[in-house]
């Protein structure tokens, strides 16, 4: 018997279905089901995944949707042709526009207006009068396209219910059809389906009641089983195939048309592109195009014409042109940097002729898919570009892609644990022990938490959480992937409002868009471009130097010297722990070295075992051999090691005779070979081609293995070159203008790898003076203030650093003091009219001390007294009436001042950093008694020395390419130390590694050139030592006379000239949440 399952819900009916489309289609194939109708609720979000599952299994997809109407009626609708599909997408868009994010409001009248060309199946509950009314309405509108679903509910008298429904259908001349209302692919998923129901209703399995499915039958069944379950309704079973045959529409019919807004009137898209191209040539080549570039441009233009991609290039060009006209920094990256056309148009900044990049990596005839151009914009001004796109292309034709927010380990454990009723402290303990999203929890880790791994409910939580991982939770908004069309976009895909104001998204993500070969323009945000723009503004304002990305001096020796020292904190791309460790070994001296540096610290070269051979050859420790001159021409720049995706493609083209398109197909299959195995079909062609061209079979096999080893993670050279440009520019500004760089970086937060405290500490190490937040000197942003008579400038911290302070309140304060500085808190309150809460936030940040001389407690005391005084409005009225108001004098109170340790805690709590002593300076004597050395002493120790050091945990990293090794950075008052924690120790001391704010490490120093690590053997949690910090006092005053006489300590403390020379300035860390007497450090964790 033939049977099609027409009512299948995937997990894209968020928190309803419990199986993916791939699982459902694979099971359908095994069971012999002829076709699968996917009908997610009020959504087509999962339909492209269903199409891909259909492609891979050969089981036909019937496109459909379940519409739940506001009157309680539910119908399954299936478009029979392309026009009907567009009606469906418009109908869903209408409902989403009313319902807002994650909601859809539709009425029967809406269905009536869009029903043409659709098959409708009523999903009834009981054969009562309500069902009769609904069935009559369905029959009137859908006619011979109306059906009634017969589905088992597993209730008493179920067969009688089916009989009554069948009679009702006969009464209204509507045909019946059997459906199974599938929610999961096999019976074992019933428990997970109950759990997602609990999550959706925000309840527990003990309280969910009849909201859960009453039976476990909601899985796919073979045709024979369906025939056994519905023996009285053979015609209804056969109609499943009839409906599937009537639904001729396939998503493959969707054809994308490029927008035409950027085309020059009277010209074709290709002519318009060439017009703008030759118009832009003088900007890049004032003396005309060199012959080799002209040849490249003609080759690219010919291919663009063949592939009909000219409208795409015009669209991106128009966006970039607008941004530049508004003074918004932007730069294209990715495979687009392989294009001379993109370079001349100003979309990218990498000259592919001088960098020998490969256009086929960007566009190839064999690939037959749209190019992908990513453009980065200043992250604080990107919204201007986004709104311009909406205005230019209209909201009917433009929307952002969605992102699918999926469950990871911590979220899965939290939601499943709550659904199963686990105590909150147990859930928190379990989730805090997770590191990577796909990780299982070993029994020993459960025991380490004081829990019993044999507990049934706990074991069930872990098992179901593992099943839930990877399932979609909800749709989010892509960072900037725009889909732009010639006609209405909602003819292709439903559109819904985004959570952000004035934005809208389609229901498909970037993978769905790519699968259907739609054009996507990535309008991305890059914090470093914002930082660079602000730095250039500060440099122009205070140093009278006109600088931008194009005017930065190339190949500056001082900049490269700083990079080689790994003094790159805060710069772009080369600031991470791994990059800093590699810099002293690779020792970049040219721009191409920097390109290699950006790309080499990636999983691809590491997995392909290419890093160490490259470094050995660069250092002259390993001989470079090229079997043929052709291979030397391809890999000469990378010393015979294929570091980039383009390298793999060139090897295939030059050594094995691949065409450009075939080489790109090889690259793509290598990128997915772990999942599809598609790379094997290229092996014979590559190996035989190389042998034919004179290479040995052994060398050819080795070459293929090497390319296969890194292909899935390979980094494009064009992408690395684009990033290297910004990396160099940020390093140049840091090297020559460290004050402006520090201020700009602080003003661009949140961004980057490091918190403000580390940025400030690094600036101090570069000789930059940092001035505290001051109510009379600070603006909202951090600014530069001239120091002395020279060109030196100090960085004044801005009021943006004060936790909780509103920008509007800061603006009122700055405006009120334009003519005269504030003389007191009372004066400031009256003139600025800001609420007392804002005044207190500034007091918590110690912002009254620099100019008004008020300590934190004195300032807060004065602010509290303001509440008893007349409000400014009444005071002004009294003055106008010439009436004197007797001032209420508070008696002077000698408040006990906070200790230095307490002040440090308050600094971290309310500013995120301290300009006082580092927290560990207060604990140093105690640590010395335990033979714990400073971080600086540890990093300067000889190779092989055993020692113990301690510090605040700044960063934890566990890269996927590190085979389970954890890298940790700690810090004390002397600087930072880099730790290596082997997997065995990590598992043994997981709670210490993941939970410590302050950690002590006993281990062995490992030194390789300028790269130093402490390989941990023992780990100890010293977080408790921070709890008494508020009671600590250094017993001396910190240095005074810097900037605006920023005095520390209490009156009567010893003269700073009598104390020993202070330790180096601290590099502190950002703390989001701490109690007033306890320093709680929140480290940054990176996979």
The CATH architecture of the largest domain would be Alpha-Beta Barrel
Largest sheet: 7 strands, mixed
Spans of at least 5 consecutive residues with low confidence: 673-677, 881-889, 1034-1078
If strands are numbered along the chain, what order do they take across the biggest sheet?
9-10-15-12-11-14-13
Strand fraction equals 5-15%
Instruction: Give the distance, in angstroms, between the N- and C-terminal Cα atoms.
Output: 51 Å
Tally of structural domains: 6
By CATH reckoning, the class of the largest domain would read Alpha Beta
Helical proportion? 40-55%
Question: Any idea what the radius of gyration is?
Answer: 33 Å
The backbone outline, from C-alpha atoms, is: globular
What's the total number of strands?
24
Describe the structure.
- The protein is an alpha/beta fold.
- The strands form 5 sheets. The chain has a 7-stranded mixed beta sheet.
- The chain has 6 domains: 4-185 and 220-253, Metal-dependent hydrolases (TIM Barrel, Alpha-Beta Barrel), CATH 3.20.20; 269-400 and 476-527, glyoxalase-related enzyme like fold (2-Layer Sandwich), CATH 3.30.1900; 405-475, Arc Repressor Mutant, subunit A; 552-725, no CATH class; 754-854 and 856-896, DNA polymerase, domain 1 (Orthogonal Bundle); 918-1086, Beta Barrel (OB fold (Dihydrolipoamide Acetyltransferase, E2P)), CATH 2.40.50.140.
- It is built from 45 helices and 24 strands.
- The model is unreliable at 673-677, 881-889 and 1034-1078 (pLDDT under 50).
- The longest helix is centred in the last third of the chain and has 20 residues, at 717-736.
- Helix 10 (269-284) packs across helix 12 (310-325), helix 24 crosses helix 32 and helix 30 (680-692) packs antiparallel against helix 31 (697-711).
- DNA polymerase involved in damage-induced mutagenesis and translesion synthesis (TLS). It is not the major replicative DNA polymerase.
- This is Error-prone DNA polymerase.
- Residues 1037-1067 are annotated as: Disordered.
- Residues 4-71 form the Polymerase/histidinol phosphatase N-terminal domain.
